[in-house]
């Protein structure tokens, strides 16, 4: 039986804006900040890349208590914390003169990114949808790429005109507005809290008690072969992906100029949007693990092309290939986990996976930056990143067992809620 009112699509719209803001200003723009800090203050790429690690390492670690908090409390309180922390961090970028100040500012940015980013936002969308989860997740996570399309060219222009010190207040204002407006007007923590049901469809059989989210218990889920191998694969996926994104502006800038570099970042984001929307609909009709494997190899191809092409057309085409993989792989990890383990303990399960994959987020950008400093070229670093992405596909293809067919701990029922 259909419900007369369903707020899930409003929540998706709110998640879209939240993810657009946090990814645009604290993910896609990291390469822009890296270039500005290098040009304005003479910092080298190695230390700057290690500073970027602060965002991902702390973000991954903070995700574990954040997931536990979401499990029992309204996540909108976290968004308010994230709005304040991220705004302060971005404002401080304008007054940096020493390398240690970058690390301090990025630590605050990590707090803002963790409390208003992937873990709480994906957890909320997962609670609101079951049958249509892939479509809802694809629309919401399109905000990730839209943030790159909107904020990178905009603030590339602002920084060129006013410098990082002039851009910093505008960065802080954009962060606060982009987080607090959807939090106040669109986000609701879950359908149960407002008397609704996932997908807007009430169960066909009446229940004696209040509605319950189904799913695995936390401990059995995180000890399955499926969870461990998917998390291991995503260390390689996200290390190569985020390393490629953080350095793509500098790579293209060094070969053909800053205008094309900003365009390349936007193409990654735009290609990600198109591919993710298509992928969201396809993911409702195909097995998710083979679909993920395909995009691991697409990502490998995009990184290899970026590392070896020199002209405008070639680099922009490579950015489009790379963007297609970015769009889908970031969406497919939460879909793999929610499809296998359900919604009941999803915030904690995804937060644990996110903390594990932070190993890749930490090592990817730093390794590419250090190798670039040592070799004075991005060709070898991007080739190694491509190899890591292909390795992730092999892990998923060869080592991963689906939880419903595995033995041992994997035999715990997939709907173990009371």
Number of strands: 0
Low-confidence stretches: 405-418
How large, in whole angstroms, is the Cα Rg? 21 Å
Mean pLDDT: 89
Structural classification: mainly alpha
What is the 3D form? globular
Order of helices and strands: HHHHHHHHHHHHHH
Counting H and I runs of at least 4 residues, what is the number of helices?
A: 14
Q: Could you describe the largest sheet, including whether it forms a barrel?
A: none
Helix content: over 70%
Distance between the termini: 22 Å
- Beta-strand residue fraction: under 5%
How does this model look, in words?
- Mean pLDDT is 89; it is low at 405-418.
- The chain starts with 7 loop residues before the first helix and ends in a 19-residue tail after the last helix.
- α11 packs antiparallel against α12 (312-341).
- By secondary structure, it is mainly α.
- The protein is globular.
- The protein has helices spanning 8-28, 30-41, 45-72, 76-92, 99-116, 118-128, 133-185, 218-222, 225-256, 258-282, 288-308, 312-341, 346-375, 379-399.
- Helix content is 78%, strand content 0%.
């Amino acid at each position: 039986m259909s419900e007369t009112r369903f707020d899930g699509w409003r929540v998706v719209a709110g998640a879209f804006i939240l993810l657009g803001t946090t990814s645009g200003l604290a993910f896609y723009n990291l390469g822009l900040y890296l270039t500005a800090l290098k040009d304005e203050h003479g910092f080298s790429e190695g230390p700057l890349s290690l500073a970027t690690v602060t965002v991902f390492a702390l973000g991954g670690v903070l995700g574990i208590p954040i997931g536990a908090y979401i499990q029992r409390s309204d996540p909108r309180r976290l968004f308010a914390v994230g709005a304040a922390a991220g705004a302060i961090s971005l404002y401080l970028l304008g007054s940096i003169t020493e390398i240690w100040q970058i690390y301090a500012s990025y630590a605050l940015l990590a707090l803002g990114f963790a409390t208003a980013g992937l873990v709480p936002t994906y957890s909320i969308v997962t609670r609101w949808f079951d049958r249509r989860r892939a479509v809802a997740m694809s629309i919401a996570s399109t905000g990730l790429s839209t943030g790159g399309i909107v904020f990178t060219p905009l603030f590339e222009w602002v920084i060129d005109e006013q410098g990082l010190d002039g851009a910093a207040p505008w960065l802080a204002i954009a962060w606060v507005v982009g987080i607090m407006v959807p939090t106040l007007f669109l986000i609701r923590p879950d359908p149960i809290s407002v008397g609704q049901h996932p997908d807007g469809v009430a169960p066909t059989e009446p229940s004696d008690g209040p509605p319950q989210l189904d799913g695995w218990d936390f401990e059995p889920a995180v000890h399955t072969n499926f969870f461990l191998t998917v998390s291991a694969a995503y260390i390689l996926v996200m290390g190569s992906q985020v390393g490629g994104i953080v350095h793509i502006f500098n790579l293209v800038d060094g070969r053909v100029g800053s205008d094309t570099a900003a365009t390349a970042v936007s193409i990654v984001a735009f290609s990600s949007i198109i591919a993710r929307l298509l992928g969201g609909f396809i993911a409702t009709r195909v097995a998710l693990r083979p679909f993920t494997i395909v995009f691991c190899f697409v990502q490998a191809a995009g990184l290899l092309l970026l590392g070896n092409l020199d002209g405008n057309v070639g680099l922009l085409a490579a950015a489009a290939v790379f963007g297609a993989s970015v769009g889908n792989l970031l969406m497919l990890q939460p879909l793999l986990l929610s499809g296998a383990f359900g919604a009941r303990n999803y915030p904690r399960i995804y937060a644990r996976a996110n903390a594990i994959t932070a190993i890749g987020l930490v090592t990817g950008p730093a390794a590419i930056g250090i190798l670039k400093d040592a070799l004075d070229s991005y060709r070898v670093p991007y080739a190694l990143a491509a190899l890591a992405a292909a390795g992730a596909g092999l892990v998923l293809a060869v080592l991963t067992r689906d939880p419903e067919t595995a033995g041992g701990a994997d035999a715990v029922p997939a709907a173990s809620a009371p």
